[in-house]
Amino acid sequence: MMLDAKTAKPREGGASFSLAHRVMRLCWGVVWMLLASWTPPFLHRWRCFLLRLFGARIEGKCDVRGSARVWYPPNLTMKPGSILAGRVNCYNMAPIVIGKGSVVSQGAHLCAGSHDIKDPDFQLIVKPIVIGDDCWVAAEAFVGPGVTIGAGAVLGARAVAFRDLDECGVYVGNPAVKIKQRYS
């Protein structure tokens, strides 16, 4: 039980998601662990089938690796040719859209939720993430809640994006800063 720091009384916050939502996520986690997480890379169609079965909107041929983690499939949209590479953490408490031909590289983290640090109950805040067409989120990069990555943009390895990224911009660092244009 959490106590309010000012009054030393129990917080009124409670769970952010319904019991049905949490049970669905539990079922999803078990299915992914048993039927997908151990599968070899060439079984991407099988893994996409499982995601679709649990409500993900996956268009055309996409690739989701077995070691990728999708928190809540109904909040995932993948356009044709997009990829979630190994060890990607798609923490999609709010919708996440990955555009056509976009790559989210190994170990990247897409985080669509945070907490209100001014709220004594530390309530959850969720905001969608949109990754445009032909983007590259490089290895171990972090994309925060509410970020839109413009078409053709690159977020470099281990870069951290908490603000929108311009189309065709190349971004590096923490926080991510634009260093050049990829192409016009």
Strand segment tally: 19
Distinct helical segment count: 2
How many angstroms does the end-to-end distance come to? Answer: 54 Å
The radius of gyration computed from the alpha-carbon positions, rounded to a whole number of angstroms, is: 18 Å
What is the string of helix and strand elements? HHEEEEEEEEEEEEEEEEEEE
Helix-and-strand structural type: alpha/beta
If classified by CATH, what would the architecture be? 3 Solenoid
Percent helix, as a range, is: 10-25%
Taken as a percent bin, the fraction of beta residues is: 25-35%
Q: Main sheet?
A: 7 strands, mixed
Question: What is the CATH domain class?
Answer: Mainly Beta
CATH homologous superfamily identity: Hexapeptide repeat proteins
Write the layout of secondary structure elements.
Elements: H1 19-35, H2 44-53, E1 57-58, E2 63-64, E3 69-70, E4 76-78, E5 83-84, E6 89-91, E7 96-98, E8 103-104, E9 109-111, E10 113-115, E11 124-126, E12 129-131, E13 136-137, E14 142-143, E15 148-149, E16 154-155, E17 160-161, E18 169-172, E19 177-181
Parallel strand pairs: 1-4, 2-5, 3-6, 4-7, 5-8, 6-9, 7-12, 8-13, 9-14, 12-15, 13-16, 14-17, 16-18
Antiparallel strand pairs: 10-11, 18-19
Question: What do these coordinates show?
Answer:
This protein has helices at 19-35, 44-53, and strands spanning 57-58, 63-64, 69-70, 76-78, 83-84, 89-91, 96-98, 103-104, 109-111, 113-115, 124-126, 129-131, 136-137, 142-143, 148-149, 154-155, 160-161, 169-172, 177-181. The strands form four sheets. The protein has a seven-stranded mixed sheet. A five-stranded parallel sheet has the order 1-4-7-12-15, covered by helices on one side. The protein is globular, with a radius of gyration of 18 Å. With 184 residues, it is an alpha/beta fold. The protein is built from two helices and 19 strands. Helices cover 15% and strands 27% of the residues. The N and C termini lie far apart (54 Å).
